[in-house]
Amino acid sequence: MRYIFVLTMAAALSLSAQPDAPSAAKEIVHQELLFAHTAVVKGRNASFLEFFADGALFFNPLPADAKAYYGSVPEPKSFLLWRPAVVEASSDGTFGYSTGPWEIRPASMGNPAVVRGWFFSIWERKGGAWKVTFDTGIMMPLTVHEPDSVTVIPVPSAAPSAVRMEEAEEEFRNVEKERSRRAAFERFASVDARVYRNGERPVAGRAAALQRSSTEKERYSYSTARMTVAPSGGLGYVVGTAVSAAGDTAAFLRVWRNDGSWKVVTELLSPVK
To answer: Structurally, how many domains does the chain consist of?
Structure first.
């Protein structure tokens, strides 16, 4: 329990240093920490069933119903620990995301971690309560240790453009298909873009995202499982299935921010083995 207490205090201290952080983002941080605490106290499956919305999706390995899965599988004997590191909320306070490191410790909280990675969760306010509507993650090298801090992304000062997120997503796909993934990122990556690939630490920042996309020669055709935009029109996400020309399949997530124009703030590709 000391681990959770230390992370909660670290998050609280980090947030106290960001007095202008949006209240909705602070609520998401609180809910994420409560979610993680519940997983330790009640068990992983019980916590997922409590904090996930009905119809929540996850990658298994393609988009699937999360509550149906966690309501039907045995409780793991290991401990899953996680904490938020980057959080953003829409200006209307109804939508946001949380991402940060996770680790698995076998049998006892006192044992060292055997697996580490990063999670990514979409949170939406449902009937006045925050619920997870999408959740996924990647693994990364066990030797990577992340600092205990939370960064809250401020609400953009620019008014959202009238262009729909669906149109921006379609244009991203067209640029990738006609030119390259690098070209799509050059067109749409935000200054703080984050790219998630399994087995790697996430890369952060536009330059790093462009560099990572330059190594990917595949061009994908995409099918959408879900696309959701906050009522304010400033933040949204799309998840679905990506298939390369060679027939390789992956699940994908893209998170978009509209700060005068739509930009990709997160992309996660999870290959199907």
So the answer is: 2
